[in-house]
Design goal:
Elements lengths: L1 E6 L3 H11 L4 E8 L15 H17 L12 E8 L19 E4 L7 H9 L3 E4 L6 E3 L2 H7 L8 E5 L9 E6 L6 H21 L17 E3 L6 H8 L5 H4 L9 E2 L1
Parallel strand pairs: 1-2, 1-4, 2-3, 4-5, 6-9, 8-10
Antiparallel strand pairs: 5-7, 7-8
Helix pairs in contact: 1-5, 2-5
């Protein structure tokens, strides 16, 4: 089985690469690289002391859940890797990267917004996107951060869906949740691990494309943008207190996949 991953370079993305290598005969990775010092250096998010402090906590949780920071694929798997700068993904020429675009399965996780010819091609191949957030309730960026601010810890999770032209709007395959952890940084990061392990399991068991994709008409609770992720929002996040009532809220969703 040949798999193409379009992903990034943080520890959680490397965990995805290493995990999928254990079940793929050939793994083709297009890796968009971002700074590993978010907030300290200008990147996806602006340089800011409070943003830097927040992402240091994110990094600490990530390193606890995903200690490996380097690619170490299974020795039975043939790896092809190309690294590009964040935001360059839509400049790739499919015809010049035939090895990367002749796979059986395509998975997108953590890249910049894919559009144009590349998006059209991936849609035709039924590419799967890992969205960290429970869609359709939460769409956009940092969705689990906002779900916690909204005191909706039951909507902290991931959506595994088919890629389409709109952000987080493709037909849903399934949702992933994990057990609540009072450390909200660990809680969010454990959800990432559950999402990756679930998709690995469904591919390994040949179940990923037997799931009937569905499009939910549930109301969007929040559509978040990078500009919304501010010092004010972070200060609000630090004040979040989750109680049992918050954990038992009910929403009409496709039954979540829980590891």
């Amino acid at each position: 089985m040949k798999v193409t991953l379009l992903t990034s370079n943080q520890n959680r993305h490397i965990f995805l690469i290493n995990a999928i290598s254990k079940i793929a005969k050939e793994l083709n990775v297009i890796q968009e690289c971002t700074t590993r010092f978010t907030g300290t250096r200008e990147g996806i998010y602006r340089k800011s002391k409070i943003i830097s402090g927040y992402f240091k906590k994110v990094k600490k949780a990530e390193e606890k859940i995903f200690p490996e920071s380097s690619i170490s694929v299974d020795n039975k798997c043939n790896l092809n890797l190309i690294s590009i700068q964040h935001g360059d993904i839509n400049y790739l020429k499919i015809e010049k990267l035939k090895k990367f675009f002749s796979s059986d399965i395509y998975i997108v996780f953590g890249t910049s917004f894919i559009k144009g010819k590349l998006c059209k091609y991936l849609i035709s191949k039924k590419a799967i996107n890992i969205h960290m957030g429970i869609a359709p309730y939460y769409k956009g960026t940092s969705c689990n951060f906002w779900a916690l601010i909204d005191k909706n810890p039951n909507l902290v999770g991931a959506t595994i869906h088919l890629l389409n032209k709109k952000i987080d709007d493709g037909k849903i395959l399934y949702h992933v949740i994990t057990n609540f952890n009072k450390d909200l940084f660990l809680y969010s990061m454990l959800t990432v691990k559950s999402a990756i392990l679930s998709i690995k399991k469904k591919i390994q068991e040949n179940k990923i494309f037997t799931i009937k994709p569905t499009h939910s008409n549930q109301k969007i609770l929040r559509y978040s943008f990078k500009k919304d992720f501010s010092s004010t929002a972070i200060k609000k996040f630090y004040k979040v207190k989750i109680n049992k009532k918050d954990l038992t809220k009910k929403y009409s969703l496709i039954k979540p996949f829980k590891l």
